[in-house]
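Write out the 3D structure for:
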Amino acid sequence: MAEGSQIKVGGGRYELLGKLGKGEFGVVHRAKDLNEGDEVAVKLFKGGVKIESALLEGQLQRRLSRHPRIVGLRNVDVQTAAGPIIVTDYMAAGSVEERIKQQAAGLSRGLRWATDAADALAHAHAQGVFHRDAKPSNLL
């Protein structure tokens, strides 16, 4: 999907604004929710990812996003022209990695980030979910 293109969800609900990152199963884009008017993050799954896998990830994200330190889920749609998508809140502040590259975190901020991450990971573990890739670029 090219920047500025629309994913056909609810008549073209999400307009892609730029790539945020990529992972093993897909690419995450910053996007505008044309119905709500705010920015969101849209994960487009790579070709070959089964619909069941996208639905399972969406179900896990929904359970986990009830925690205040985990990104909120907005929408899961497996019937778009672009394939399955997961839409979450957009975290404008960026990742911990990006913030550290801009300026050293300092002890107080670093401890807060570590404590927040540990709290979120403990919640996920209590739900039977193990992140397996917690690192500064994955912490928002």
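Strands lie at 6-7, 14-22, 26-33, 39-45, 73-77, 85-89.
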